[in-house]
Amino acid sequence: MSQYTPPLRDMQFVLHEVLKVEEAFKTMPAHAELDVDTINAVLEEGGKFASEVLFPLNREGDEIGCTLDPQTHAVTTPPGFAEAYRQFVDGGWAALSCDPEYGGQGLPVTLNQAFYEMLNSANQAWTMYPGLTHGAYDALHAHGTPEQKATYLPKLTSGEWTGTMCLTEPHAGTDLGLLRSKAEPQGDGTYRITGEKIFISSGEHDMAENIIHLVLARLPDAPAGSRGISLFIVPKFHVNADGSLGERNGIYCGAIEHKMGIHGNSTCQMVLDGAVGTLVGEPHKGLAAMFVMMNAARLGVGMQSLGLTEVAYQNAAAYAKDRTQSRALSGAKAKDKAADPIIVHPDVRKMLLTARAYAEGGRALGMQVALLIDEAQNAPDEATRRDAEATVALLTPIVKAFLTDNGWLATSHCMQVFGGHGFIREWGMEQYVRDNRINMIYEGTNTIQSLDLLGRKVLGDQGAQLKKFGAQIQQFAMANMQDARMQEFLLPLADLGEKVTKLTAEVGMKAMSNPEEVGAAAVDYLRVVGHLVFAYLWARMARVALDKADSGDRFYAAKLFTARFYFAKLLPETASLIRSARAGVEPLMAMEEDWF
Ligand SMILES: Cc1cc2nc3c(=O)[nH]c(=O)nc-3n(C[C@H](O)[C@H](O)[C@H](O)COP(=O)(O)OP(=O)(O)OC[C@H]3O[C@@H](n4cnc5c(N)ncnc54)[C@H](O)[C@@H]3O)c2cc1C
């Protein structure tokens, strides 16, 4: 019953009119030739794959899920998943933004990001298989030896082999320093790895001929804690010198989890029984190498929730125009009917506009960060590359946590628009709520993201990077302040900027005498900074829409209405968040543990 139309018009707006990507690409030698038509054509084709191939598999994927054969340890994915994956690989989609040296198409990360939003709208569970593969590709591209790269990157690029990240163990989730899996050197450059990993997404399946696991484990002489963790490549099938597949390796799926959502993705308990692997990067420095994959995955998880926000919004908006209940408070609107469509009711509109503002704001943020990654990889001068990389690091926890929290609010509101029909399975809305919930948990819970933002990324450098980002906002505000029509956006933006500066200084001061002040403020703080980033992006989008206000194209009028809604109804949340953040640690820590 659910429907999905790729939001190509809005993507083009963000890419071409707000971010002006083709101008940015012209400064990057690798992408200088890319033109608007090519970008749009890729997105259009990508949208077709998402809506025509993946979307029809989403509901059945949820209902049937994955199954494990305990005798053979084989996992069967839902009907159509493997065939869709074959089409994905044959169509070259896996290779879109990969390095041409390994068979990639070398297109910008920005395009891949937009493509992944659509894949996630269509089918988050399916999208996790290629999504993790791309993360494994990134980690090996950055840290693999020339031999490892030659063996694995071409197959991960093409998508013929998929990848996983094997971090979590039963007693070691957030705190990876606790992990126990062991790696014994064999004296021939390989290691035998023994241990148990849990919750491994895409750990076993029937979609590709080989699975390349990136596994964290400890060497015999490893120091305790997170400084004693090394990273290993452990293939499901060994790879012969000529690239052909050899014997089965000692890693297998012992069980699959039964869970709240993303049923089409296999969440596996993986047993490593003397599995043979090779070391990636330096001994004991595995976490640093793994962070390449984790950062890619954090951005990817933000895009998962963006995708769900968009598809939930589309369905709720269509339903609200069709479903008739009650009359508008101001009198009947659809006089030919027994009742008005529910879109006449202010609160139904509030729920719809909340989802819409979070989808469009999230899209602008997702693409902005992707463009910064392209700059970090391709800008000709070192200073621009470093600046872009630092801004990506600052924004990564915001993309992960703010977009997934917003996705939770948005999918829940959209389900609410359906009333009781949203709660039953038929309309597909409850699946979006269930699927979104994991996004706030995995890849470092949203609490951990907030500690990363406030503790490491902001206080860790005395607010220097945040100040740089603030200076960009100020520059934009100064350049547009003389236009009276922009003031409704710029005044609250400037006001919030000042408040963030004060809040940061206040928490920083308090944290000097009590480090737990950081933990007490972090979640509220991330949401406040998330709104600052959104307000900046919404003001930029409003700027473009105002310039086109006379065009007669109602796309721009709708953009302005949505911007005004965001500033009037969502941004004010920051006042209560700041108050809560300032309340500090005392209300949380005063009570004795045994009173709980
Ligand atoms: C469906 C699914 C798929 C997954 N896929 C993968 C995968 O592919 N690979 C992989 O390795 N793992 C995967 N995971 C594991 C996931 O990343 C972890 O569940 C997550 O990191 C949290 O770890 P945990 O479950 O052990 O919770 P815990 O670490 O036990 O945390 C419990 C609670 O305590 C809080 N907490 C913990 N430490 C702190 C702290 N220092 N400060 C404040 N609060 C804290 C947490 O925020 C959380 O609310 C997956 C999990 C699920 C459910």
UniProtKB/TrEMBL annotation:
Residues 471-591 form the Acetyl-CoA dehydrogenase-like C-terminal domain. Its EC number is 1.3.99.41. Residues 82-160 form the Acyl-CoA dehydrogenase/oxidase N-terminal domain. Its cofactor is FAD. Keywords: FAD, Flavoprotein, Oxidoreductase. The keyword Flavoprotein applies. The keyword Repressor does not apply. GO terms for molecular function: flavin adenine dinucleotide binding; oxidoreductase activity, acting on the CH-CH group of donors. It comes from the Bacteria. Residues 285-451 form the Acyl-CoA dehydrogenase/oxidase C-terminal domain. InterPro entries: Acyl-CoA_dh-like_C_dom (IPR025878), Acyl-CoA_Oxase/DH_mid-dom (IPR006091), Acyl-CoA_Oxase/DH_mid-dom_sf (IPR046373), AcylCo_DH-like_C (IPR036250), AcylCo_DH/oxidase_C (IPR009075), AcylCoA_DH/ox_N (IPR013786), AcylCoA_DH/ox_N_sf (IPR037069), AcylCoA_DH/oxidase_NM_dom_sf (IPR009100). It catalyses: 3-(methylsulfanyl)propanoyl-CoA + oxidized [electron-transfer flavoprotein] + H(+) = 3-(methylsulfanyl)acryloyl-CoA + reduced [electron-transfer flavoprotein]. Residues 165-273 form the Acyl-CoA oxidase/dehydrogenase middle domain. Belongs to the acyl-CoA dehydrogenase family. Involved in the assimilation of dimethylsulphoniopropionate (DMSP), an important compound in the fixation of carbon in marine phytoplankton, by mediating the conversion of 3-(methylthio)propanoyl-CoA (MMPA-CoA) to 3-(methylthio)acryloyl-CoA (MTA-CoA). This is 3-methylmercaptopropionyl-CoA dehydrogenase.
